Amino acid sequence: MQDFHYKALPINVYFGNGESKKTKSILAENGYSSVLVITTPEQKETGLNMAKQLGELVTDVYPHAVMHVPVSVADEAVEYATTKNIDCCLALGGGSTIGLAKAIALKTGIPIVAIPTTYAGSEMTTVYGLTENNLKKTGKDIKVLPKVVIYDPELSLTLPADISASSGMNAMAHAVEALYAQDKNPIISMMAVESIKALSQALPKIVKNSQDIEARKQATYGAWLAGICLGSVGMAIHHKLCHTLGGTYNLPHAQAHAITLAYSAHYNRNADIEAMDKLAQALGGQSHEQVGQLIYKLNQQLGIPLSLKEIGLPEDGPSEVARITCESPYYNPRSYERSELEALLQLAYQGLEPK
């Protein structure tokens, strides 16, 4: 076995059906008594219900989180949070909500308690992202790592099957890239394989029956593991592509990840053969050569949109994304070949199988 360095994440994690009903006592146990509940506009009602449940612990509900955390939205939230005498941001929702709470924490140091309702995985990481002038920039800071994460699979029962599928594939992307990360290690690789297996098994069941609580629990488990992967090791080409698609074209985050994953995995299929063989086997295949096709077929099975065109990428998008990606690349186990990337992105634009 190789030598390695592994840093465990300092988070209190609560996991189980109905666990969110214990939020008030969990907040009190952790010493929080003046809480700002953060949601998206669409989840305002859910936030108000949570506030009712928390009673005197809540200062206000802030329902203004949006996708990709624009700097202007983050600045307004920071200003609002600093005018209130709060001691905690309770992020209730998916990546947009948790992302906004992280933007507040980054500037103010106000701690986060996260209750994820999707499979995004951001809640288990020190990674934050902000978008300005059509460019999404990411960073890492221990201040944005939630102090407490409460996983309640029951909360995901209201998540529509199509969004569940895309969100689950977004989570899987974190585990996939962990397998060939620059700072990969045996512990995270083991978690990544387990995450990919759990998600690939649970998501088709959820699409078949969105009320299957055992499948929801398995998907939540897979997403939790994927979040640990994302929070513990670095990202590579797939995340660079998706950050460009989101920051430059404001494409929906989960769908962009889900579609692009097949092509980025295919691009790296021969770059780290041991990792890609593990990926293929976790997806029910055999060889590293199959990884792109296996993910593409899983997306087909889940009914996820297959083309970037369908979710809003313009015709000149593939060449522009390839240019931006190659001009400011993340680490990747193989070099960035602009022409090959553009060709793959053209296939992704049309929704054709990677080859």
TrEMBL record:
Q: Which InterPro entries match?
A: ADH_Fe/GldA, ADH_Fe_C, Alcohol_dehydrogenase_Fe, MAR
Q: Does the keyword Oxidoreductase apply?
A: yes
What residue stretches are annotated with the Alcohol dehydrogenase iron-type/glycerol dehydrogenase GldA domain?
10-153
What keywords are assigned to this protein?
Answer: NAD, Oxidoreductase
Checking Gene3D superfamilies in the record gives: 3.40.50.1970, Dehydroquinate synthase-like - alpha domain
Q: What would you give as a GO molecular function for this chain, any one?
A: metal ion binding
- What Pfam families does UniProt report for this protein, alphabetically? ADH_Fe_C, Fe-ADH
> Is the keyword Oxidoreductase assigned to this protein?
yes
Which residues are in the Fe-containing alcohol dehydrogenase-like C-terminal domain? 165-349
Family listed: Belongs to the iron-containing alcohol dehydrogenase family.
Output this protein's name. Uncharacterized protein
Q: Which organism is it from?
A: Acinetobacter gerneri DSM 14967 = CIP 107464 = MTCC 9824
Instruction: List the lineage, top down.
Output: Bacteria, Pseudomonadati, Pseudomonadota, Gammaproteobacteria, Moraxellales
